[in-house]
Amino acid sequence: MRLGIIGGTGGMGTFFARVFREAGWEVLISGPATALTNIDLARTADVVMVSVPIKKTMAVIEEIAPHLRDDQVLCDLTSLKAAPVAAMLRTRAAVLGLHPMFGPTTPTLAGQTVVACPARINPDQADLLLDALKAGGARVIEMDPAAHDQLMAVVQGLTHYTTLTLAGTMRRLGVDLDTLLAVTSPVYRTEMALVGRLLGQDPALYAAILQENPAMPAALDAFREAAAEAERAVRDGEKEFVDLFARDAAFFSAYIEEATEESEALVQCLATR
After folding, report:
1. How many CB atoms lie within 10 A of CB 162?
2. Using CA atoms, how far apart are residues 216 and 212, in angstroms rounded to an integer?
3. Distance CA 241, CA 50 (A)
4. Distances from the Cα of 164 to the Cαs of 54, 151, 204, 209, 210, in angstroms?
5. Phi-psi category of 111—alpha, beta or left, where left has phi over 0 and alpha has psi -120 to 50?
6. Is the pTM of this model over 0.85?
7. At what angle do helices 216-236 and 238-251 cross, to 10 degrees?
8. What are the pLDDT digits (tens) for 234-253?
């Protein structure tokens, strides 16, 4: 099988080119500096994979749409699914949305999660792609595109928004980071490491995740309401705080034991460095 990756010279494109070559596929790539154009690739590949930034994805799909056939498979790797899948469905190709839940610096697929959104594709075509991912050690979870975006508003969007809010709060307080880190225990240093990690990345990626997901406004509304509720509990006294804590603990009850074990393992790793 011949896989063509549009954006194959980028981080994620390069990662998946390696994955599929190792699985025995012939891989073609197009990028800003390649002789092979996106249209050349769309005309010749059995499977066309779009691996470009979120804001460019729709334009690329529209560019190649007239050149795709009904015997081809079209998929994308963006972290949003509803809009790209809808755009891909306007082509003649079979459609499978993909979202790797990891970054391109990950060394292998082993232990990683990939969300798959089969939209218009027969099981044999889907299995051809997904089996290559599973063979590399990935866990594949199938999901509806709209449900995916709603979940990503929490998994990615709300997490990133909270991290940015924490960073902005510390900046406003004028916190001395060197002094803070000197007195920070491993568990809280993990929190600080996540803040620093995010702020060391490309802001355009996070802007797109937060701004392009149609489910984000509802998530942000819920965040503001929860923040106001927590502020009232902090100001109003111990009983109110304990009541709020109990409600949230009840919601997380099925995960608390696992979360404690996982976070303890992380703490021990940091403590023994």
Report:
1. 14
2. 8
3. 48
4. 20, 19, 14, 13, 11
5. left
6. yes
7. 140
8. 999 899 999 999 999 999 99
